[in-house]
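User
New here, help please:
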Amino acid sequence: MSLLKMKLMVLIDRYKQITAVANALQIKQPTVSFHMKKMEEEWGVKLFEMRTGKVLLTKNGKLLLHYASQIDQLYSEAESRLGAIHAAEKNRFVIGCTTSTAAYLTSSAAIGKLRALTGSHAAVISVAVHDEDELYQKLHLGTIDFILYGAGKQQAEGSEFRYQTMGASPLRLIIPRQHPLYESSEERSLYSQLEKYEFVELADSSVAQHIHEWSRKCQYSLTSFASYGSVELLLHAAAASGDLAILPECLLPHAAKLEELELTLTVLDDEAARWTMTASWRSQHWDQAFMQQVLEIIGL
């Protein structure tokens, strides 16, 4: 039994005229008569009767009408709600971020600038936080329009995605004021002492990778005892426990209890002490010019 036939039952009871039912459903009169006949064959009982030019429901028809009305009402409700969701999603620009890039995006002025830019494209800007693999899955499915992540893997050139490096940010050593190293004045001496202390770290593989590369080139062996899923939690933890942390400068808000010292390499170059942010979007996005404007706003 199809939804059309349930709707037909409701309309026959309402209009009691085949012509009126056909007009309401925007189908031909013979099609209405055909479905009425098929319904009686399917149920094996008489559902309709003709009286003085009107189509009335029999006792069995009224019994079926009870269920048909509920089905029709539930379908209309579902259609209305899903339609509202579709309209909202259609008017939404979704940016997918990792833990680190979400911290940068929300603490920068980018969202306010994007709001003005997306006036003709989207009513709502939505920020979704996932790991890098899930971001690419959602980008592929089209549930996310644009993703930001710390420099990591990229698909092969000429694939369904486009990429652009958004800039690099120097890493900073976070020293709570109660930490023994807070008053250290000699930078070289300070870094030589880092192995003595424990760190708290951000649960973002791109940040951890750059910190590891920097410490390896400097021949430091750093120890982390706790990992946090957001920059805010990490900074609160560092301030409360008095432990060290390392973060890209662009992720750092102004915090009264924390001191920032730039990480400098004692050997090799300083590229390992810089965290890079990358953007990706679908090559087939309908408005590539709009995407370029987004890139200009979000870049470091």
